[in-house]
Design brief:
This protein has 100 residues and is mainly alpha-helical. The protein folds into two domains: 32 residues, no CATH class; 53 residues. It has five helices and no strands. Helix 1 crosses helix 2 and helix 3 crosses helix 5. The longest helix is centred in the middle third of the chain and has 18 residues. It is elongated, with a radius of gyration of 21 Å.
């Protein structure tokens, strides 16, 4: 079996940010990202902020499609999305105002 230069990389020898990335997505994907985005600075927004609009759409969609066979459950949705129960109620109230 022939080795490649990537086989000589040990995660512990990489800069700390790359070590974190390798732990999260694997060394092979870290190498791919480093090659694809070479020289580019990246700022990653906190997941709470990045994904909140999608969670809001999901909550509203679940609310609109609730029926006796699939009732709407605020607490279950809060746990599923990582939002608070209060946020789920607020999203629904705001969604109702937009629909009117």
């Amino acid at each position: 079996m022939t080795k490649t230069w990537q086989d000589y990389i040990e995660t512990e020898q990489l800069p700390e940010d790359y070590q974190i990335m390798a732990d999260a997505i694997g060394l092979e994907n870290t190498i791919r990202l480093a090659q694809a985005l070479s020289g580019i600075s990246i700022y990653l927004v906190k997941p709470e902020k990045l994904f909140k609009p999608f969670k809001i759409k999901y909550v509203l969609d679940c609310y609109r499609h609730a029926c006796p066979e699939q009732p709407f459950n605020h607490r279950r949705l809060a746990l599923e999305t990582g939002l608070s129960v209060r946020e789920v109620y607020t999203i629904i109230e705001k969604g109702k105002k937009v629909e009117i």
